Amino acid sequence: MNIQQISFGFIEFFLTIFISFVLIFLSYRVLLILTPRLDEEEQLRRKNVSVGLVLGGVLIGEAVIVKQAIYPVMAVIQLFVLGENRRFFAFLKTLGLSIGHVLLAGILAVVSILFCFWLFNMLTPRLDQYEEIKQDNMAVAVFMALFIVGICLLLSSGVSGLAKALIPFPDIGSIPLR
């Protein structure tokens, strides 16, 4: 066992906890701002289980998408820390790009979820999902939560790919194949 790898493992673990909590909390707050029609916090106070299910589906969907962004970021940081090129400013640049990558993936996830929810609502004009969820219609809530999770499973690699394209990682070296 290498003490440096173990140390980095603990740093990665705590960093992932922090990133996960911040992104999920920020996603929740952004969702509250962008969907004033539903007033989720008031509905939760009224014990509206349907709103809780849909919010849970959104947060799980967010986690599915952001997970695709966290893994490569941690891999790049680990390669940088364990590699030979350990210049401080290069590390700060890598760290900044990594944070930008994860935040961009989180933003794209929230936007994608809200867009898909809106599009689904437009394509099903006979069923007002917002109103049904507000009225605590469990069938609609379960369906929408699973719809969101399903969409996020399908969107996760695309969002991660777009985030990688928009925020490229710096070169950290190469592994010789001979």
Spell out the helices and strands N to C: HHHHHH
Count structural domains: 1
Share of β-strand residues: under 5%
Give start-end ranges of low-pLDDT stretches: none
Oligomer: single chain
Largest sheet: none
Q: Give the CA-based shape.
A: elongated
Return the average pLDDT rounded to an integer: 81
Output the number of helix runs: 6
Termini separation: 26 Å
Quantity of strands, as a count: 0
The helicity comes to over 70%
Report on this model:
- This protein is mostly helical and 178 residues long.
- It has one domain.
- The chain is 80% helix and 0% strand.
- α4 runs antiparallel to α6.
- The longest helix is centred in the middle third of the chain and has 36 residues.
In short:
The mean pLDDT is 81.
Summary tags:
178 residues
Topology overview:
Blueprint: H1 3-34, H2 40-45, H3 49-82, H4 88-123, H5 129-134, H6 138-166
